[in-house]
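User: I'm writing a short methods note and want a consistent example. For ABC transporter substrate-binding protein, I'll paste the sequence; you return only the structure tokens, no commentary, since I'll be parsing the reply automatically.
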Amino acid sequence: MNRKIRAIAACLLIISLLTACGESAQQPEATAPVDSAAGTLPGTELGVRDAADDVFSLNYNSSLSLNPYATTDNKNLLVTQLVCDNVFELDDDYNLTSRIVTNWTVSAEGTWWTLTIDTSIPMHDGSTLTAADVAYSIQLARNSARYSGRFSNLYGVSSSGDDTVNISTAKPDLQLLYLLTVPVIKYGSYSSSRPAASGPYMYVEGEDYLQAFDGYAGEGALPVDRVYLKEYTETEEIITAFEDSYIDLVVNDVSGKSNLGYGGNTETRYFTTTNMHYLGFNMSTPFLSYQQFRYALQLAVDREYAAETLMNGGAVASSLPVSPRSPLYDSSLGSELQYDLEECARIFDSTSVADQDNDGWREYIDMSAIQEIELDLIVCSESAGKGDIAKQFSDDLASIGIMVNVRELSWNDYLYTLQTGDFDIYYAEVKLPANFDLTNLLTQEAGLNYGGIDDENYATYINSYLAAGDTGRAQACYEMLRYIATNAPIVPICFERQQVITHRNAITGINPTSSNVFFGISDWEINF
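Assistant:
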């Protein structure tokens, strides 16, 4: 039960007992039974859902690890967010905070960071936090499948003394701290399925619940003493358990294969991820080798319709490769690239991309010869919304005479086709780091450069942006984004949002982030 409502509950209990024992107490008339699964009578307005068990519970998988660096189960990863502090927290408005790091400095060249750790923080095993725990955890993150992509620029990390972590990078990056939203566990505990940490709740050996950690700052304000772990594996079983209030909070990816479509009397909060959907161009395709044609094509993407309708609200539209939630997003530049089929057609008209043979489709002139335009767009068929967005793009371009054929492929066939370059345009999704480092996407020989981009200027702009300090960062980012928008090596579409779903009026104060659904849990109120 919520600690904050115990006193109120006790008073209500006394009042109800006094009323029941009074001589004038009126006995209620018999009524039809209420459906406890719905919590309402027919025709009445939905209110607070009847709790099935009066405890706060999450779903998990007992056969898999509850170590954030070892688990492969997203349900278990959610549980670990209650147990582990992150080195840094980044809220949905890109404000950076930490209760672990008290101070930090960076060298003039931007390649050497020193973090000072608060060694007074208790850990669940009775020890106190040390720099060795933090450095160890960052090393684990660097080598893990889940987090390694963000640390491609990390050169080394070590601890010196009890309170100092040293981090070096291969090139200047004054936004390194934005990447450190990774969980901290006890030094040497990678092999433990339930490692000690310093977060608000702790594992209890042999038990299927988390216990509020009495050493946690603000522990008295935690909304419940225990968080129970329950196990449901099949899709229908999970949905039913949630709808019957046997589990009380779920995270849902609207655009993914795991979208379960929870219904009923619920409340939904969203957090924006750095998962960017975009179109990429094959630079060896003759038509797409022209910068002005690529620029025109990005005006044919109806991003708002894609995000709100085709992805069921599971994304936020973005015409730039930076999340619109970030203060670095330039709205003025983004508006220049908004959906505008008339302008797209006008650009093609001005560059002599026209219907030369009156067959209803445009052609272009290359090497003094008329060339047909028939573009092959590949998309993975196993992800919700992506195929629909690709088809809408194709239909819109067809309306102005540009032929784009959509080829939906299985995941394995899609990957093979990407790697062999047998496409003109590809629809992709990439998880960008929170500093929006585009190195791995746009630079020569980069791992995600499937389109054969060979313009060295992208690396120059990206590196200048990463090396920029607080005063010059916005301008450096604008110059990078302007160059990308003008040359259009890729066409950003949207950034995914995910849902945190609870029962209506059951939980207040939720402020989830992409790295911590339970961010600010001391501010939560849980009412059964």
